[in-house]
Amino acid sequence: MRTRLAVSVLLVLTATLLGAASPQAAGSVTINGKTIALTHGRAWKTGEAMGVPTISVILAEKPLDGLDWSKGDGNFGEGQRGVALRIDPSADPKAERGREPYRYAVQEDYEIQLHAGSYRGWNAATLAASMQVEELAVAGGWVTGKLEWTGTLPNPFEESERVTAYSATFKLPLEELSN
User: What is the pTM for the complete model shown?
Assistant: First the structure.
């Protein structure tokens, strides 16, 4: 009887651990023909507008430990995080106040920024381009998203620097900003 109970408890615990969500971040940016993998990610709730959380997601080439969201672009100087993509989406107009899942869209060109030494020298570069957003949502304390773009975005200050693709797929815990 005890053995059967122990096995049952072990099976329940194993199933719970295997089913538990774990953070995932995968993305890439292609700059001047070189593709850089973005394997680290974090997401924050930055406020609330009309009952829907405002969010910010960062995917980076290097770990994001110790990143202070409130420092903004100061987190990326001299490549300390490697190449990074920052996504600050708008709530989908159809998102219902206080009702998950909250859906988001990338509607304005300022909502995606790139930090890369080979494109504007680590200065934040706004990526103004029409993209395919398959999913961007918040539910149960997690942000999930999948978006991609291909084309050509030359650096307006240096025509030889070009971004030709970027993508992001993520499932990240939604962190609260600390005061």
Answer: 0.85
